[in-house]
Amino acid sequence: MNTLIQHRKMTAVDPYTRCETYGPTVLTDAELLAIILRTGYGKMDAVALAKELLATRENRLGRLLSLDYHEFKEFPGIGRVKAIELMALMELSKRIARESHSDGFCMNRPATIAAYYMEQLRHQQNEQFLLCLFDSQYHLMEDIVLSSGTAQTTSITPREIFSYALRHHAVYIVMLHNHPSGICTPSEADRELTRDVAASGELLHVPLVDHIIIGDQTYFSFKEEGLALC
Fold it and tell me: How many whole angstroms from its chain centre is CA 53?
């Protein structure tokens, strides 16, 4: 009974007080988001506004990561400042997720590479194609977004890939892209591109080490499946 009474008291106070008193772990997703929003809209307080925002994304906090500035601003009660603050929060979340997987990051571990890019790519509603460039010690030099297209496979050519790889003096390359459906099974177009890029890489002495497809908390690695590449 005491626990129930305490819980009712906790839910009756604002999220700032709850966070200060009990710590952030007791707060709901809506309450955490309300702290960023600070104010509500019309008759809704900040928590109610946060709940409405989450409801548009099936109450899945991670789905907010794919929203851009204009999409946030389209929501009633979110203006310029709140949209920018939310974008900053989403970007911080992505960077923290990537940083947590960066220790020991090397190109010969597909699971590590997939984890490094998972939060960046798995929430995207459109297909994004990244080229990762590595030096001779397998350190990531740079990643380049080559395409951000529709839900269908984006059009990438070996010529475009190796123009970047040679310009940046990459020793090895890895390709990544996401499937917005969340299912990471490679299409025939994915397989064909992988074969073409691998063949070009052999000729140019810039090997394609892997092609990783990101799904929803899952991935497909051509290397792990024995289909790659050098």
Answer: 19
Domains and CATH numbers, the chain: 2-98 (1.10.150), 104-221 (3.40.140.10)
Residue 95, amino acid? R
Measured CA to CA, the distance from residue 145 to residue 162 in angstroms comes to 14
pLDDT in tens, 117-127: 888 888 788 88
Q: How buried is 166 (Cβ within 10 angstroms: 0-12 exposed, 13-18 middle, 19+ buried)?
A: exposed
- How far is 187 from 156, CA to CA, in rounded Å? 14
pLDDT digits (tens, 9 = 90+) for 145-163: 998 875 455 578 999 999 9
pTM of the model: 0.61
d(CA 35, CA 39): 8
SS3 (DSSP) at 141:
strand
Q: Name the stretches of the chain with pLDDT < 70.
A: 1-12, 97-108, 150-154, 228-230
Please answer whether residues 228 and 190 qualify as being in contact, where contact means their C-beta atoms are separated by less than 8 angstroms.
no
